[in-house]
Sequence to fold (1055 residues):
Amino acid sequence: MKTVRAFLVAAGLVSALAGCDDPADRPSEIQSLRVLAVRSDQPFPAPGSQPLMEMLLEDRGAGAVLADGSKRPVQVLWLAPCVNPPGDLYYACSPALHQAAMLIGDEGLRKGELPQGAPPGVAGFGLSFSPLVPADTITSHPRGEGVVHPFGVVYVFFAVCAGELRNVPGVDLRYELPIGCFEPDTGKALGQSDFEFGYYPLYVYDDVSNANPPVDRLEFPGAMGDACGTDGTCQPGSACGQEGICLPVVPACRASDEDDCPSYAVSPVLGPSPVEKAITARMGDDAPFETVWVDYYATAGSFDKDARVIHDAETGYTEEFFGAWRANATPGTEVRLYAVVRDNRDGVTWKWQDVIVGD
Amino acid sequence: VNTDPDGRWNVADVPPGSVLVHLEATGFESFDGTESVTAGESIEVIHRMRVRRTDGALEVEVRGRRPDREITRRTLERKELTLIPGTSGDALKGVQAMPGIARPMGMMGMLVVRGSSPRGTAFFVDGMFVPQIYHFFGLSSVVPTEMIESIDFFPGNFSARYGRVSGGIIDVKLREPQYDDKYHGFAQVDLIDARMLARGPLPFAKSWYFTVAGRRSHLDAWLTPILEKSAGVRTAPVYYDWQAFAETRPTRKSSFRIGVLGFDDRMAVVLNDTSGMSAIGNSLSSSEGVFRIQALYRNAISDSVSLNAMASAGFDREVFRVGSMYIDGHYRPITARGDLTWKVDPKLTLRVGPDIVIYPYSIDIRTPQPPDPGQPDPGMFNASQMLSLNTSGSFTAPAGFAEAEISPVRPLKMTAGMRADYFNKTGRLDISPRINVRYDIAEGFPRTTVKAGAGLFYEQPEPVQVAPVYGAKGLRSNRATHYALGVEQELAKQVELSVEGFYKGLDDLVMQTPSADGGMTYANIGDGRVVGAETLLRYKPDERFFGWVAYTLSRSTRHNGPGEPERLFEYDQTHILTVLGSYSLGRGWQLGARFRLVSGNPYTPCLGGVLNAANGTYNCRSGPLLSQRVPAFNQLDVRVDKTWTFQSWKLTAYLDLQNAYNQKNKEHASWNYNYTKTQYDTGLPIIPSLGVRGEF
Fold:
């Protein structure tokens, strides 16, 4: 079992001993076009269903705000043409993706339109999408040894582009993505700061379900969620935000050493029964409980930790899982703080809290 | 035999064990003494005979050398074991300085021999298989140097006595007791561990002699604070190892030894920041232990027949947990091996023996299937379906071998062997014919020997590859065909040059592949080859100096399956150069240095990241597999020893300065969270290892 062991140890130790990365390059600090999460209202949908999938997107790339102060347009394409790929590997879907994108064509990709007669639930545009889970997803998936809950998998891919989506001609599918993101005027290929490509695996069961983790709200000191007064006034210590809600105001962090600035505990407030048994294809009633964790993201300022485990299958609940956030140095900024709570069976829930950085 | 005019003489083919030496010379009083001769090692001793008259002394040399059965056997002798710079005196880390061994990446205790996978090299203690050679992080070996008499390293074309692996063999010979009815011992402490050893006559047991030794790391003193920066430590990282043996000689030509050895490594942490691996959880624990009881019997039954027999039993434990994934494995290994040697006549020696391994196991495991090296990034380790298995059974692998050493003419030595290996998990019998030939073009000094060999070597699939749920049925053993051709040339009494070319054809390699019934499985679809040359220019230890220059040029490649492009082996290192030497300055001072220049390991570049939006982590979008290398590695290690000799004991202080010029060597490539930036993680900085040792 040395091979398995080596991976377990590597997975753990790499993280335990990490800490040399560029501090300006942390996942919690949103500095580009980012897909922070995708959730399905049914993380484990049934065959023949059409779960609703939604995307949490933030665009903080260098060109995110146009000269007139508006936000640049962002295209979101969804593709779900890949069912039960070889080895259940997402990268084995490349030929099916390529074929689906070619069917839409460059014109359809540019306009965000599907060709007439396109089958429902295989492609879509926008921040939400309802893929059609084929009725034979489970029956067409070979049943491997040790499977107690038969399953299948539908890969739902997305391409998010702050430019124009196009097919990539002459693509080598072993290494390249079949779809690219290009500057509309120059045709220059845009990099990952303006183009996100990813997937959400929909594991399909008849007899296993999973609920997204219940999260009531995101707690921030002084945040009451009150609507602004008619004249835009709020209680002392808060100010009216862009969405007409009174937001807590915190001082800008101008100290040369960030540690000299106060930090604010941001924490998701969980609903009842946030942890389920992690029953999956080969894990029956003796399955452990889920691992649940929270990823923190901020549009400005910084969290002390990018992610905290809420519940570990081995050690149970973590006593403290808040993220300590410090403000940025620029006063007058309205900052959005996100907490994305996930479980290890693809359950996802998110909450956010806006904060105003004052003088 | 008669001596030469200088009083020097040689005896070859001395059976291992204690040898009675009787010397007579005109004008001198006769001399009687015993010398301990280890198989595969030559010894040189100086006997001073008492002159019947009033002045003068005579130097007499006793030499024993076992005939070579392998193309290449590298033997590290006692003097070298403790003094190789950069190893903190750890003999088994010194093996890494031999040609043919790739430099292990920092903090990874593995041996990659002639382009074979790390598990292709087996580690034996007096013929007993031991599952690992180093404590965690490769910081220290599991058998302390002081317990070791010699280390035999076979980089390929090894004898039919050894099997189940297709890379190399490391066989450690433990020290025999000193039959002088005195007590000896030592204690040593350095920055990594503290150890002690005692040996001498066993009280209340006439003619029995004992050796006991133990070691405990104090890593916890300095590693715990480092871990605490990002983790809470539940069990401080610590390792132990211990050995206790008793030996007797029932007759002048036989010996019997019984004893125990074992080791234990453990640690547990809870991570505070789990970015990138949150889905796994935040807890990590590791606990591994090995215990063996071993009996060893040797008997030179007659002038032409000798017997070696070894049996061992014990238990292994490996318990690893990372969040919701774990391995909880318990094993009860039983091994038995031996050989019966019959010297039919001076031209023919026959040897046969069994080599039996039975590994009853009880395993409870829950992990996803591990990806193979050289696969595109399948995504986060636990993003795929979790598998679980709770089972017990036995890995049973009986084997037998037969060898004939033929010397039709004096300069020619030919060893033809055959080995048969059965493995119950494949249900197959592997037959491995092997032949090695050595021919002394010039005998005597300066000796010139050409050597060549060819043979089949089978390596049984890994347990995970044949396990229910995780593995596949119907697998065969991985197969390697070794070819070697070389020459050895004595250049001076202490200086020898060895040049050897080698080629390994690999086929039937077990590789991961999509399964017809979903998920991934294993099949014998891989192949590969290793081609290279090793050069060793060695100054054999004398009173003042030892050292060598070792250079290996090689290329190791694989095909993951039919139609797949050829790729580099994941630990391929084109150039491996080691230069080391250690010089006795006199007055107890010894100064040594080791310099290494090694090609960087290959890695697969990431062309960007693909987001798994369900768990929030990015997967590497892999470029051509293993198509880039980290920059070359270079490092200088320096060691200084000072020994004070008192009437009945010695005190030694040493400084082993690893990475003396603080080179920031790049060990492996890593990426930022979304694989848009590549960086190289650097290895260990300058490390002064200071130690003190007292022995009597």
About this structure: Helices of chain A lie at 2-16, 94-111. DSSP finds two helices and 20 strands in chain A. Confidence is low (pLDDT under 50) at residues 14-21 of chain A. The longest strand of chain A covers residues 151-161.
